[in-house]
Design goal:
The protein has 141 residues and is of the alpha/beta class. The protein has 2 domains: 34 residues; 94 residues, 3-Layer(aba) Sandwich (Rossmann fold), CATH 3.40.50. It is 49% helix and 13% strand. The chain contains 6 helices and 5 strands. A 5-stranded mixed sheet has the order 2-1-3-4-5. The longest helix has 30 residues. This is RNA polymerase II subunit A C-terminal domain phosphatase.
Length: 141
């Protein structure tokens, strides 16, 4: 019985020791101004910086803009055209403007993860004709 009690005391001391170390790390981390949680969250909101989107679903506009993306008025200005997978549309203008058409879930998944997800699995149509350009865009993401 003494052995069990002794073992439990050793485990309790180890737990207290680990708690003290973690508390110290936490205190140091949050005492440094650049690790301010508000600043961290502000930077996390810059998911779509530098990207221009042409959208067919106006509900996405605020979401894109909230996360530092730009919604443009013409296909020619867009990096990506965002549509729903089940939206039927005429692809002629998309081909003419050499667009990359991406499923709207790209926006939702990126916002959920607070970072740009790999866009390749969301591409529905690629009319850019420039594989090197597309690869460069994908590499940035």
């Amino acid at each position: 019985m003494n052995i069990k009690k002794s073992k439990q005391n050793n485990e309790d001391e180890e737990l207290l020791h680990l708690t003290k170390i973690l508390s110290q790390i936490h205190k140091e981390y949050f005492s440094i101004p650049e690790n301010n949680i508000i600043d961290i969250l502000k930077n996390k909101k810059k998911i779509f910086t530098g990207l221009n989107f042409y959208i067919y679903n106006s509900k996405l506009k605020k979401k894109i803009e909230d996360f530092d993306g730009v919604v443009v008025e013409t296909l020619a200005e867009a990096n990506y055209v965002i549509i729903s997978k089940n939206l039927e549309l005429d692809l002629t203008s998309l081909k003419a403007d050499h667009c990359v058409v991406v499923d709207e879930n790209y926006i939702f998944d990126s916002v959920y993860k607070l970072r740009k997800v790999n866009v390749e699995k969301y591409v529905l149509y690629d009319f850019s004709g420039d594989d090197q350009l597309i690869n460069e865009i994908f590499d940035d993401l």
